[in-house]
Every structure is written in C-alpha cells, then in structure tokens.
Amino acid sequence: MKLERVEVSNFLRLKHLDLPITTPITLIAGRNEAGKSTIIDAVRFALTGVPTRVRYSSKFKKDLALLVHDGEPQGAVSVQGNGFATATSVPNGKLSTTGTLPVTGDRLEAVLTPGWFNAQPVDARREFLFSLLGIRVDKDSLVHSLVARGHDPDAVKMVSIHFGTRTWGDIEAMCKEAASQQRGVWKSLTGEDYGERKAETWVPKAPEKAAHTVAECTENIRRIEGKLDVIVRDIMRIEEAAKLLARVDDARKDVRDDIEDLMAQQDADEKALEEFSATLAQIKNAAAGGLECPECKARLTYSQLYNELRRVDAPPDDDPDELKQACEVLSENIRIRRAQINAHHAATALLAALPAAPDGSKLGKLREDDKLLRDQLRSWQRHLEVATDAERYAAEVETLREKVKAVHRKVVAFTKLADDVGPNGLPAQRLSEGLGEFNGRLGFTARLASWPTVTLTDDMDVLVDGRPYSLASESAQWRADCLIAEACAFWSTRMFVLDRVDVLDVPNRLGLIKMLATLAANQQIETVILAGTFKQPPTGLPSSVRVQWIEAPVTEGRVAA
User: Fold this and answer.
1) pLDDT by residue (tens digit) across 133-151?
2) What domains can be seen in the chain, in order of their start residue?
3) Residue 30 to residue 43: CA distance in whole angstroms
4) DSSP string of 502-546, one letter each residue
5) In the chain, pLDDT over 90 holds for what percent of residues?
6) What's the pTM?
7) Where in 440-479 does DSSP place strands (E)?
8) DSSP β-ladder status, 14-20 and 3-11
9) Strand pairing partners for 545?
10) Angstrom distances, CA of residue 193 to CA of 161, 400, 473
C-alpha cells in the first residue's frame, strides 16, 4: 500500500490540509499542539472509517460531531495511493465511507496502531499470525498428523471438513461443544453427571440373579407338558369310553324294547293268520259238501274260525281271495319279524359281550395328577418369565455398558482433539515454525536500528531483550511496537504509521531512521508516516526521508513541500 496523498478538511483542529507523500518515509514534525497526531489520526480514520478520539456508535452522534472542525457542517479525510483511494466524512453526526482498499481488517489495524498486536488476547494474536504468515496446512496432511498423534479417526474426520475454512479457535470450540454434547448423552444413558474418572470405571447396576436359568425352566416345562399330554390322552380315552358305554346301555334297552314289540306284533300276526286260515278252510269245506248230520241229515262242516260245526249252506261272509291275500301278507310279516327278532337277539349277545363302564377312581386319580402337573407348569412358566427378564436385562445391561463406554471414548476423543487444536497443541507447533520467520524479521530490524531484540514466544508473549513487555520502559515498549508493526507490514501492507517518535532519544531516533532508510532502499517498505515533537525541523536525513514541518496550529492551506 503505497500512499501518495493525504487530504483533510474540517477534521478536528485541521481546517484544510493537502499533504503529498513523495518519499518512502514521511516525518511529520512540529512543536506541541501543531496537529501532528491529528494528521496521523486522519490517516487512520480515512483508511479504517473508525475514529480513535471519540466513541464510535450510532448511539453517540454527538460524539461523532466533535470530529468536525468548529462551526463547519461536516468534516472529511481522504487518502490516495497507488491504485486506490478512500475517503471518510462526518456529515451531520454520521459516518460516510467511500472507496476500497487492498488490505483491510486486522492487518490494517496492526500497521496503523502500533501496540495493537500486544493489546490483543493471546488467542487473537495466534489467529492473526496464522493469517498474516500464511500458515496453511493441507487438509489431508493435517488429518494424517492428528491421527498419527493418536487421535480418534472418526473425531478427526468430523471436524476435518472445517480445516482451511475456519480458524483454529473455531475448530477448538467445535471439539469442545462435541465433547459437551457427548457428556450430555452419557448422562442421559446413566442418569448421572459425567465425570472423567467415574466414566473410566462406570458399570450399570448388576441384574438380580434368577432362581433358575432359562434352559432349566424350558427343560422342566417340556417334561411336564409331555406328562400332561399322556394324562390328557388317558382322560380323553376314558371319558370317550364312558360316553360309548352309556350309549351301549341305551342300545341294550332299545334292543330289549324292540324285541318285546316285535314279539307282541308276531303273536298278533300269528293269531290273525290262524283265524284267516280257519275261515279260508271253512270256505273250502263248504265248497266240498261238508258232512251229513245224523239227526237232521243236514250238511255240516267244521269252522275253525268259530270252533263249531256249521251248516254248509251257511258259509262265512269273507271273500276267500282277500283272506288268501291277507294270509300271505301275514306270513311274510311273520317271517320278517322272525328275522328281526333273531337279529335283535344277536345284537343283545354282542352288547352283552362289551365291557362294563371304566373305573371312576382311575379317572379321578388322573384328574388329580393333571391338576398337580398344571400347577407345576404354571410355576415353571413364572420362573421362565423371571429368568427371561433377567437374561434380557443382562443383555441390555451389557449393551448399555458398551454404549456408555463408546460415549466416554467420544468425550475423551473430542476433549483431546480440542486440546491439540487449541493454543498449546498442533497450532502452536505449526505456529512455532512460522514464528521462526517472524522473530527472524524482528531480529533483523532490531539489528538495523541497534535496538534490543524483540521476540514472540510460542505462548504469544512479547519479550523485549528477553524480559516481558510489561516490564519494559515506555521507550522500549514503543520500539517493540514499532518492530512488530514493521514485521506485520512486511507480510501485508508494506506500509505503517508511527506517532510519538519523540519518545525516543536522539541515538534511538537515528537508529529508527537508519532502519527505515535501509528497508526503503531495499524496497521492503513503501510508505512509513512518522510523527513527533521537535523543536526544529530535523536535518541531515537520508533522501528517502521527507520532513514535513507543521506550525501550530494548522488551520488552513497546503502544507509546504
């Protein structure tokens, strides 16, 4: 970022300022209250759009209005450079910024505000240097490194998608959040708060041991069911036999009744056949002439129907054909019934040969055995339920134990990973490699200026001549801030701004000019703006340094070249 011109209009004490930048190093010098620091602030304001002397917020419009020169409607500052221009104005208590810059953000703050780096939190310093130094790690290489360091491959894979797109701090936060979530899962599974030591040895409550095993219960149930099958079959056989014999008794009675009915019908048919036969014989005798009565000489015949002698001339009134037919029917009926009677007698003989009803006491004993076995069966079935539940719970307990162990492993994995992607882990290792270059630059510029060496530790502490920054003198801290700003500029803008050069004594001022002139001669810096209080314009400086003397106060006009 090579600056070429700074213009100020109605900004703080400056009514108007047109400052061309024609050399790599510009020293703005003057007495107190001349407006030197105002010019430095104007440059910062133009490049960042952020004021340094008032509160910057929409809530503080009145404060922003204080940046405008007294009595003017607005103030403005602009900076022109090689290929860029930017301007910031304050109209009516509002900020308005136009233009673009090749470098923005923290990289710009680091070179515009010496001391900015040291004022940042440790993590912010580390992230800034990662970005500044261009420390980029190939994703595959980083995954390989983490796995090689013993990290869980699944945990590494989960966060690896963010490598190269998110900061180390973001990735560390992701790992910590993942570990926290897994601790929540552990609690939901166990019902207890997670503790690392507790989780190492935690086991679920052991299940109560059943009185019998599932196999034992199953075998006894099978045995009892086998016995029951036999008993049930015996009971069914006896009950069926009893039912059958009851039907046999009924059949015996029915056969007896049938025989009696058949014999009664047989007797009746035989009597009727006898009567019909006698009548038919009488008719035949009458037709043959019969016998002669010795007394009256009448013709007589014997009537079997009436069991008496009757005159031939008085035959029965019955039709002989009908009687003959009736006799044939009766004879056939008698024959059929005789056969039926014989069949019933044979059935009676068969029924009489069947066994008697079974012993009721045996059936009662079988039923008692059946009840006893069923009670035993129910008991073993209850034992089986208990044993099955116990075995199932034991299996569930084992599954739960494995789940809890797996969750604990994830907690440990993400916690370890968070540590290794945190400040003291792999980023520190990678940064340590980059710090070698950064500290090399600090050492190089310190030697050029003949100043004490400034170094950054792996813990992001700033050391001045081996001692903590906070213990250094004001001028030593200023020199440290200067060297750090130059190093940041070397890897970014090749431009930086320094105020209060007057904090240095003459030898250290000369060292500063010597360093900057050397860097300019080697084209390692493009623009440096210095400001400091001097009694008179410095002389005898290198050609790369232009002294801009400011008379107090600068209220208008163009600064003299």
Assistant:
1) 877 655 676 777 778 778 8
2) 3-121+438-550 (3.40.50.300), 139-205+399-421 (no CATH), 214-369 (1.10.287)
3) 17
4) GGS-HHHHHHHHHHHHHHHHTTS-SEEEEEEE-SS---S--TTEE
5) 22
6) 0.57
7) 454-456, 462-464, 467-468
8) antiparallel
9) 25
10) 31, 16, 51
